[in-house]
Structure formats: structure tokens, C-alpha cells
Amino acid sequence: MKKIVLPALLAAALFAAPAFAGQPVAKKAAVSAVKPADKVYKLQPQLSTLGWDGKAVTHGHNGTVQFSGGELLVRGNQLVGGNVTVDMKSIKATDIKDADTHTKFMGHITSDDFFSVASNPTATFKITKVAYIKGAAADANNANITGDLTIKGKTNSITFPAKVGVKNGVAAASGTATVDRTKFDIKYGSKSFFDGIGDKAINDDFTLSFNVIAK
After folding, report:
1. Which of 52, 62, 123, 131 could bond 31 through an S-S bridge, CB–CB 3.0 to 4.6 Å?
2. What is the DSSP string of 4-63?
3. What is the pLDDT of residue 23?
4. pLDDT score of 154
5. pTM (predicted TM-score)
6. Share in percent of the chain as helix, strand, coil (round to 5)
7. For 66-178, where are the alpha helices, taking DSSP H only?
8. Is 179 helix (H, G, I), strand (E, B) or coil?
9. From its phi and psi, is residue 185 left (phi > 0), alpha (psi between -120 and 50) or beta?
10. Residues of the chain with pLDDT under 50
11. For the chain, where are the alpha helices, taking DSSP H only?
């Protein structure tokens, strides 16, 4: 069976373009207290993207899911906070071209085996800390973002590197976050919970690639 990537985001897609932890960052982060925001930038769903990528022992799938709203909080020219909402009903598998196969697959990942979309139609991510990286190159990740990711009604803190910036009335955040699905009660096909499933196992981790644009 297949493993999915949410949202996301979750991330900080919520913040696939690059743009929802624990990825190594080459440079040491300079952590400072989060300052209060003096501007609120509204997320632009039509300009923002969120992609997911999930893998199993013998295969993998990838696709997209859409942001439905959110905001980035800015002080000066720095991102200091924010939150995003993901419409889980919009999830798609872009690598599956056959219509019948896609319908069957989507029926499974939106079921209670995975995201329980009928009872959990949205996922959210709320930033709790932005730690800027000293000396980051202009085209590289320049911050570590920490926040509360909520999927399937379960909330866990995740941290991931991202490229963030504010310029000419636009705030943007892009990057890739790694999510352990089992922490959100998505255990189907996990070797961590089911013995003897062999090559039917689905990886616990999936990734979310996000590009968030706010104005």
C-alpha cells in the first residue's frame, strides 16, 4: 500500500515549489525571542503551493493539497509568526494517471486508515518560533521554523529549515518539512506497529514541500 505526505503543510507547505521536521541544517541557528508582529500579511491560496511525497518499500506516490487560508506575521522585514489552514478535501495524487486507480487510491488515503478527511476536513500549522541562521546564503534556507502541526485532530510540534523573506509588500516562506505520520494516528502499514508486513510496509515519514505567498 502507499504512504502519503500531508499538508502540511503543511505545510509550512505551511508554509511544492519549494516553498510542514528535524532535518539537519548546516549552519548554526541564531535563536532570539520572537518579537511581536507589526504587520499581518494574508496568505494567497491561488499563489501558494503545497506538495506531498510518501514512500513504501516497493513504491511511492506524490501529489498536492491546497491551502485554504492563513496569515504571516511580520515585524520590519522579518517573518516572526503565522498560521496556515490546509483543505484536506483537495488532496490529489499527481503521479497516478489512470482515473480508476486514482479514485481507488484517493478513497483509501482519505479514509480512516489515513487522514479521515470526512471527520477532519482541515489540517493546520501554527508557527511558535522562527530562528534565523547567521550567515545564510541569499539563495539558501535562512531560518528554522518551529510550530504546531495538527492533522487528524492530533497536534505535534515540528521543526524544519526554510527560506523566508519580506519584500515589496509580499511575505514568502518556502521549504520542505518531514512529518512522522504515526504521531498523528496514521499507522496503516507501519512496521513500527505491525510485525511481519515485509515489502507491504509504508514509511512512517512523509514530506511536505511548500511555497507560501502572503500579501
Report:
1. 131
2. -----B-B--------------SSPEE--PPPPPSEEEEB-TTT-EEEEEEEESS-EEEE
3. 43
4. 97
5. 0.81
6. 10, 50, 40
7. 99-109
8. strand
9. left
10. 1-33
11. 99-109
Q: How many other CB atoms sit within 10 Å of the CB of residue 77? A: 9
Neighbour tally for 160: CB within 10 Å: 27
All three cell numbers of 142: 535562512
User: Which H helix or E strand runs over 93?
Assistant: strand 78-93
What's the grid cell of residue 203?
A: 514509511
* Cα–Cα distance for residue pair 210/11, rounded to 1 Å: 6
Q: Which helix (H) or strand (E) holds 160?
A: strand 154-167
pLDDT at residue 68 in the model? 98
User: Which single residue is written with the C-alpha cell 509580499?
Assistant: 170
Report how far apart, in Å, the C-alpha atoms of 144 and of each of 89, 91, 171 are: 29, 26, 16
Separation CA 23–CA 196 (nearest Å)? 29
Q: How far is CA 30 from CA 75, 127, 145, 167, 171, in A?
A: 17, 17, 12, 22, 21
**From the candidate CATH numbers 1.10.10.350, 3.40.50.150, 2.40.128.110, 3.30.2310.20, the one assigned to the domain spanning 38-214:** 2.40.128.110
Q: Which residues of 111-134 are buried (b: 16+ CB within 10 A; e: fewer)?
A: eeebbbbeebeebbbbbebbbebe
Average pLDDT of the chain is: 85
Look at residue 132 in the predicted model and tell me its pLDDT: 95
